[in-house]
Amino acid sequence: MFAQRIARVAALATGLFAVAGPACARGQVVDLRVVSTTDVHGRIRGWDYFADTAESARGLARAATIVDSVRAANPAGTIVLDAGDFLQGNAFSYVSLRPAFRAGNPVVAAMNAVKYDAVVLGNHEFNYGLEALDRSLATATFPVIAANVTRTDGKPGWKPMVWLDRGGVRIAVIGETTPWSMVWDKTLLEGRLEIADIVTSTRRAVAEARAQGADVVIVLAHAGLSDGPGGGSGGGSVPGMPPEDPMAAVARAVPGIDLIVFGHTHREVADTTINGVLLVQPRNWATSVSVAALRVERSAGAWTVVAKHGTIVRAAGHAEQAAIVARAARAHAAARTYATATIARTSVAWSTDSARTMDTPIIDFIGETMRRATGSDLASTAVFSTDVRIAPGPVSVARMAQLYPYDNTMRVLRISGAQLKAFLEQSARYYRVTGDADARRASPDPAVIGFNFEVVTGAAYTVDLTRPVGDRVVGLTVRGRPVAPADSFSITLTNY
Questions:
Q1: DSSP strand pairing (149-151 vs 161-166)
Q2: Do β-strands 169-177 and 193-195 pair in parallel, antiparallel, or remain unpaired?
Q3: Assign residue 167 a region: left if phi > 0, alpha if psi is -120 to 50, beta otherwise?
Q4: 276-331: per-residue pLDDT in tens?
Q5: What is the pTM of this model?
Q6: Which tens digit of pLDDT belongs to each residue from 351-375?
Q7: Which region holds residue 317: left if phi is over 0, alpha if psi is between -120 and 50, else beta?
């Protein structure tokens, strides 16, 4: 079965165009294969550290096997890219930042084994601060790029693009990342980093690349499409902030781009074309790999992309690459030890299965912990998953990490009563009511991501789904008193 999968990937690498001949340089024709991952979030091995069991559907070690197959089938024309968010997200990435691994981050070591041609910074790369990021990338053998990121702390920054040559074709790969890191990690980045608007930055970088003789331009972006339902990551808007997910706008507004490889939204786009630009996005956690095929022909002394197409290859069923398994072994063992460590005990069962429909003890517990830690009036807790089950008995790190897989920090803000009401109304959008406004016909709205549903502890309120969107929150009180628009409260949230 494994051999059959390798054969199918090899056939894919050579057969995306219905033209005879190998998928490498042939005189006046070069067939490029751009193989990409994104949002790996520390999923190096196929292992669920929450359940402490092996997984067969994801992991960079499996994605690397796909990369190897494409390279073997098209050694002269393959480009390997990653669209960011690789350093943070699970127990493996967490232990990789501990002092025991200061000599070399295991996530970076695994990515070195893949031999990426370029990697763009994602927003989660900044979560532990610039010092931790610099230490992690110190041993990287792959280029890290970010055209719209400027360091203002006097330390070396990152190149805006890398230049590649495949069969005589000069290729520019430009990196862009969402400017919203300046919102989420403001306390770590303010005064030390600036992240510019992606559309403006890409327009400038593409013009520079073409002026310097680029035959093919690829934009590698950690930002979503934000076109239609589900096209963005749901981050909302902040006055004065550039868009979080503008890649559809980039395709429409910036001339000279051949391919956009993007990530950030944890979705999958196999083959979409906007304004003549091919866009692809592999699934997060190395669950899939995207393969973009670009045929480049030389005519009248110039190279031109004459055909392009994208597809997705699932990681499921592919063997893990031995080199990555070996490089990850020590950190993998440390991550299992950390995740299975007991940190508490409970005499009752806890569950989040109803947390988006009713008051739930586990969410109350988290909210009260946040309130007591900061002394705030209120606390807001995202219901990240409704699948969390904690049985009576010992509670491990892994059991608690089911609630929130990411290492976010707490922020305390001052909000008015009107803002509190509006904030709760934003969460109440999560439910869509069909038919005759009967609340019994409510179902989750696919356009609203579940982890954007927040529960506020310290306030009492009801969400009435028979009322229109924007006016569903009724009976809002704090400390038993109805909330007036001019009231003022302190509220604890995560930085995201």
A1: unpaired
A2: unpaired
A3: left
A4: 999 999 999 999 999 999 999 999 999 999 999 999 999 999 999 999 999 999 99
A5: 0.85
A6: 999 999 999 999 999 999 999 999 9
A7: left
